[in-house]
Recover the amino acids of this structure.
């Protein structure tokens, strides 16, 4: 256990350096194009933080402070989404448009070789948008308000997780304050993406999992953790990384016998699959889906192909899109992709290959808002605060400080050695780091686990203080 913790810690001390350097690069780039709004945002955050510290010093009931933080976070999110008149773009626009077709009884988008037959993991978002359309006259505003409410729920869930991870309500309140003011969570409240729905399920699942690992809940409660994570997964299908992290944590850190460990792993796996299999079965029997939610008519290797493009650093590109479109047979396509990926990685000079992976990895995690303000303001009719063009120095400076605290926390042995729960979050980060290193890269893909850095930044506290 100690050996594995030291190994992961040493690896992350190296792996976080390029991210921090890239993040600092973003800060420098936006500093060169300084806008006055950054001053106002920095002043607003500073005054908010001073007020937060004052309230902490007054030693009010932690529940009251938490409620104030939740209210504060809600106001920030609602203000941003209500004052920003925007429209969904790209995949988000496609899903919103198809939701209207779905309501009219047209399921063709899920059949044959249509877009959602190729990428059925977007199905639940289309159905969710359809539900909102059927309930609200102004469905776009309703989606954003719901996003804001769910993002506010994240403040409470991060508090619960931090309280258990550090055994300190005070440390958990720091986590809640960061969550309330965290730029990505505010930005994505105005983005029409499924991560807003999935994230609370991810967080709640982790909280339940930690309770079991700390022997505060029965092992059978892992069924609940798996079910909740499974629901989050059908909205953003990358939760399998968290499942692997759960399994690794149980095997390495859960101080139980072999039978209990095996039972725990089995409970999580089975419970995790239930929501997806259930939803998939219902949708196929209703004639909505032609293919399974987890496997469309197009191989998932297409993401690996795009992720291997050295010229675009693993991002979407026309070259690979044309290559994929040139095949009619999925098996032939998968075979051709594997050959092409192998060729790219084996025939590229080693220095160029190392630089490619380094650049792809660091830029994946370096954006202060994970692309949130770009997607929020991509098609804007009107807005009151233009953060994308005038406030990105503040956004990236905020994130840089969080990363710096996370890195300093790696040297705090009283956390990662004496507090095994912290290693769960390190393992989760490593899992997603590897996933996005192999597959297609986009800044927004990391948003689903942007909360990791909030919790990891709290490791900067001395453990004997955190456990007061």
């Amino acid at each position: 256990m100690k050996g594995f913790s030291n190994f992961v810690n040493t690896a992350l001390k190296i792996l976080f350096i390029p991210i921090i350097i890239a993040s600092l690069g973003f800060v420098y780039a936006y500093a060169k194009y300084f806008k006055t709004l950054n001053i106002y945002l920095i002043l607003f955050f500073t005054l908010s933080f001073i007020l937060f510290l004052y309230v902490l010093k007054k030693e009010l009931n932690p529940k009251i402070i938490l409620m104030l933080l939740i209210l504060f976070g809600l106001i920030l999110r609602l203000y941003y989404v209500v004052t920003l008149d925007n429209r969904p773009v790209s995949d988000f626009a496609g899903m919103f448009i198809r939701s209207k077709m779905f309501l009219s009884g047209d399921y063709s988008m899920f059949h044959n070789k249509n877009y959602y037959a190729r990428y059925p993991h977007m199905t639940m978002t289309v159905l969710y948008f359809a539900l909102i359309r059927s309930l609200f006259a102004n469905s776009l505003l309703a989606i954003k308000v719901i996003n804001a409410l769910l993002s506010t729920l994240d403040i409470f869930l991060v508090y619960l997780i931090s309280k258990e991870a550090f055994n300190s309500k005070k440390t958990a309140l720091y986590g809640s304050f960061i969550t309330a003011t965290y730029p990505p969570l505010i930005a994505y409240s105005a983005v029409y993406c499924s991560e807003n729905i999935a994230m609370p399920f991810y967080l709640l699942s982790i909280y339940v999992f930690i309770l079991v690992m700390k022997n505060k809940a029965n092992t059978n409660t892992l069924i609940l953790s798996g079910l909740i994570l499974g629901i989050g997964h059908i909205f953003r299908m990358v939760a399998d990384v968290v499942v692997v992290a759960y399994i690794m944590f149980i095997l390495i850190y859960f101080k139980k016998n072999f039978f209990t460990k095996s039972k725990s792993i089995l409970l999580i796996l089975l419970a995790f699959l239930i929501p997806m299999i259930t939803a998939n079965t219902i949708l196929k029997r209703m004639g909505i889906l032609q293919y399974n939610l987890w496997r469309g008519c197009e191989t998932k290797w297409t993401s690996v192909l795009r992720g291997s493009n050295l010229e675009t650093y693993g991002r979407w590109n026309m070259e690979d899109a044309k290559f994929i479109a040139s095949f009619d047979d999925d098996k032939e396509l998968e075979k051709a992709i594997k050959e092409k990926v192998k060729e790219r990685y084996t025939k590229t000079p080693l220095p160029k290959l190392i630089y490619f992976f380094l650049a792809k990895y660091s830029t994946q995690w370096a954006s202060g808002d994970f692309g949130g303000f770009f997607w929020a303001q991509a098609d804007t009719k009107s807005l009151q605060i233009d953060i994308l063009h005038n406030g990105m120095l503040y956004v990236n400076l905020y994130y840089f400080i969080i990363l710096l605290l996370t890195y300093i926390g790696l040297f705090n042995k009283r956390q990662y050695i004496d507090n095994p729960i912290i290693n769960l979050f390190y393992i989760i980060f490593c899992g997603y780091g590897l996933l996005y290193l192999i597959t297609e890269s986009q800044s927004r893909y990391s948003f689903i686990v942007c909360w990791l850095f909030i919790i990891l930044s709290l490791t900067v506290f001395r453990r004997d203080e955190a456990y007061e």
The two ends are 25 Å apart (CA to CA).
